[in-house]
């Protein structure tokens, strides 16, 4: 049976259980550049920033399957020369790309995102050419991420109607390299937007928050949309005015 493979752009390993669009992501610290500035906070930030870029690329990438490849790991290398050859470890493909760490930390946020995206993309293209995978899939993913300004906005699950079916509400996530924001968005029956309200935000490290925030959601009444955490200990409400209240 063919396996979907997943990608990462440096020190974190993204594991795909089924296909790209049904991926469960797990972070794993793989390597560090041996530099005195690589304290815990710097390593953490580098991993988290890469995770955001990898996730965005992953969501834009059409499914690619391969009978003997389960994962692709693209590792950034700065303290030595990157290996030219593509390595294998069982069903994992390993590829190294050179990376200028000092230059990276001197860039502003948007430029850092572009630098990470480029090294991820170049590593994947090398693997795709070697494996005979469709290059167009990767080019499409890269182009879409660029078109979205390397800024990931995605809805979570389907919208839900309020009790009188006058508005639909949905949860949306803004996933950036340094924070996650959760919004509630409501629409009228005709599809026009009623409003967008910020429910919660958090900076790094934010993965526990992201997981825990994905609990139950729905309407308490005709105007109040609520998101409840998985453990039920946190709730976030957004109140939307109906047309008659405006």
Short synopsis of the structure:
With 246 residues, the protein is of the alpha+beta class. The chain contains 5 helices and 13 strands.
List the keywords.
246 residues, single chain, disordered N terminus, alpha+beta, four-stranded mixed beta sheet, four-stranded antiparallel beta sheet, 5 helices
If you had to describe this structure to a student in words, what would you say it looks like?
- With 246 residues, this protein is α+β, with helices and mostly antiparallel strands.
- The protein contains five helices and 13 strands.
- The strands form four sheets. Strands 2-4-6-5 form a four-stranded mixed sheet. A four-stranded antiparallel sheet has the order 7-8-9-10, with no helix packed on it.
- The longest helix is centred in the middle third of the chain and has 23 residues.
Helix/strand layout:
Blueprint: E1 3-4, E2 6-8, H1 40-60, E3 65-66, E4 71-77, E5 87-89, E6 92-98, H2 101-106, H3 109-131, H4 135-147, E7 152-161, E8 167-175, E9 179-188, E10 193-203, H5 207-213, E11 216-219, E12 224-228, E13 235-239
Parallel strand pairs: 2-4, 4-6
Antiparallel strand pairs: 1-3, 5-6, 7-8, 8-9, 9-10, 11-12, 12-13
Helix pairs in contact: 1-3, 1-4, 3-4
